[in-house]
Design brief:
The structure is a single chain. With about 230 residues, this protein is of the alpha+beta class. The chain has a single domain (about 5-100, about 115-195), classed as Pnp Oxidase, Chain A, CATH 2.30.110. It has helices at about 10-20, 45-55, 80-85, 110-115, 140-150, 165-175, 200-210, 215-225; strands at about 25-30, 35-40, 45, 70-75, 90-105, 120-135, 175-190. Strand 1 (about 25-30) and strand 2 (about 35-40) form a beta hairpin. InterPro entries: Split_barrel_FMN-bd, TR_PAI2-type.
Length: about 230
Amino acid sequence: MYVPKHFDNSTESEVRALVRSYPLAALVIMDQDQVLSANHIPFVFESDHIALASDGAVLSRGELPGLLQDRLQGHIPRANKLWQDHSADVEVLLIFQGAQGYISPNWYPSKQESGRVVPTWNYEAVHIRGRLRVVDDASWVLRQMTTMTQLAEMDSSPAWQVSDAPADYIQKLSGVLLGIEVEITHVEAKSKMSQNQPDANRAGVLSGLARLGTPHGQVLAEAIRRRS
């Protein structure tokens, strides 16, 4: 991924925050026929499972293992041939995407001064490479599903729990799923949020997004404020 210095967002805390907020990744593999394939799968950090298992709260940054010592975990249906198709000796790529949206030149005050402005697209993305391992273990899958559910339900009241479903149903479901785990070897993160624009243009972008009045625009505006 092309990452100019002013758009680099690869600090550990920012990477973890984006993955937790947008856990659905495109998992890209090179299959054994040398063909690229992508699946869309939500992932959680193994360290988040450890934290939830201990006290129900995600650990602070200072207590977490480094990203390159952590793993990302998910699950797939056994019918998904991903677990058979991936080449064990070739790294996989996980692509997580955060806030994104179109930026109109009409929002820049500098348009009135020189006209030397063009449209652009703001976005956040994290690319993680690593080794993929398939886990054929129903208890591991149940643990992973429980962690993912707890994280996703944190803001819900009441929060749904895996134990709310009948035990025999969950047992049967766990048996038709496979766990997948990616041992992280490389991380890149980019946040292109108008950092290369003067303050007046950034303020104009925020005003333009506010006038849109859409939830999508609000999310993008919040991301721009964080980067400012």
